[in-house]
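Summary for the steering committee. The consortium agreed at its last meeting that each partner would contribute one worked example illustrating the joint modelling workflow. Our contribution is presented below. We chose a case with several input lines so that the handling of multiple components could be demonstrated. No manual editing was applied between input and output; the record is shown as generated.
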Amino acid sequence: MPIEIDIAHVARLARLALTSEELDRYRSQLAVILDHAARVQAVDTTGLAPTAHPLGLTNVFRPDEIRPTLDRDEVLGQAPSTRDGYFEVPPALEGA
Amino acid sequence: MSLADLTIAEAGAQLRSGGATSVDLLDAVIERASFTEAQLHCYLTIDHVGARSAAESADRELTAGTDRGPLHGIPLALKDNFCTRGLTTTCSSQILAGYVPPYDATVVSRLRGGGAVIVGKTNLDEFAMGSSTENSAFGPTRNPWDPERVPGGSSGGSAAAVAVGSALGAFGSDTGGSIRQPASLCGVVGFKPTYGLVSRYGLVAFASSLDQIGPLARTVGDALTLFEAVAGHDPLDSTSYPGAVPEMRADFETGPKGIRIGVVSELSGEGYEPEVAIAMTRTLNQLADDGAEIVEVSLPTFELALSCYYLIAPAEASANLARFDGVRYGLRIDGETVEEMMARTRAEGFGPEVTRRILLGTYSLSAGYYDAFYGQANRLRTKLIQELAEVHQRVEVLVSPTSPTVAFELGAKTQDPLAMYLSDVCTIPADLAGTPAISVPVGNNHQGLPIGLQVMAPALGEAVMFRVARAVEERAGFVARPPMAGPP
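What follows is the complete predicted structure of the assembly.
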């Protein structure tokens, strides 16, 4: 089964503004890699649970206590743009 | 012989006998770097001021009788995906160029607490994605045994620095082989611990269910010392193992007598260089002479490990790397809307391999494909773990080459992503299973290029793994001295 890849859709989901030449190149590279990786589908895995943690650790809790956090000014000092103690970004909606 | 050529154990003895100070050790590795960096490019940042201050402090403490243990005063290098407070951390990516973390990774705090001197931050494939350190936005690292060849990757800067003596030891991260494969190609020891034994807090995440921090060193004993200094539960990493770190010293020097060693038949044959296979066989024969029992074992799911890995790791990476969006740190390319700003920033900031893996992971997690790819790969991971458990009923450790080949030439695989991925075929199974594995140099090929042997053990089986690795080291008698380290 040839693998179908809507690369423009995938790039949009991944928030990557790629050129059409780049999209073409990545689509053909992904096809080769996925064709190799699709070998996993030939194996019967009925009854096997997927591994999430190799040692099987689950449900790790900690006490709900107030702890020191990083210094706000130091953290904001790494941001490309801030205003009044917040991260600043362009509008989330066009025309907003 | 320069102090830069000492093992950590030897340097520690010098510090305590008054033969050398920590500042002397630091000066020696910095001097070595001054000869080798122009050609090798192991480091992205050398912290001249911070390292000197730490070394002076270590010397003052020792003089005053305060001894913080085996890493006190020892100059070490860290892969540039460990957050270091006040010291630039880039992951070799334009998207993080100039980023200065406001906190230390747990590993970094533990090393500082143990008196270690952090010389600087080493080069890697961008976000640890690669097997040659050619995917660095700041230029490749080269192999100290032959600068026309790659050091392996992604911890290539750490491996080359340890090989050449611009650090006495180093740390890297291993997701698919990124500690062991460069260690093999550079002729040093590289160890990936059981998943969860070393905290990942402050390690910039690549694939969270696989990533594990570990040491690179000139000897197996030094690797053990470095590991002990950072291992153990950390409440800041919820995947961290809450039990005790295995006791590894008691049997360390007892040799391989009576140990059953399984040679993985799937990790041999086509694609494996004859000299790599010969070096492994020679070493195994020596271990057999010393009383080890060598048997061949088969793990059929190993054949599919690479495919599983290239579904799981990019999927997790695509989620982890969503945080690089031009909002909180790093690069921003402006846009009319927040989405346009993010998409432009990411397209500009990520290099081709990272972009490829984000796309691959996004695809395999997207609606309609999730179960067939990511879900199936994680069920096969369970099958692999079950197969290993069955085989370990019969053998204590498994062995294979660390890499099917010696170091390859720069550019040889950059145009063929799949060929590059195949260089991790031997190392990936231990990442998928979360088990400990170590690469130990066992010889050189006819061109003088190092060959590594991998020893794998069950989860939390570090004690027997180190015992066998020590026996391999002793029998192989390999002394890491690449030509670039200069005259003895």
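The first helix of chain B runs from residue 8 to 17. Chain B is about 40% helix and 10% strand.
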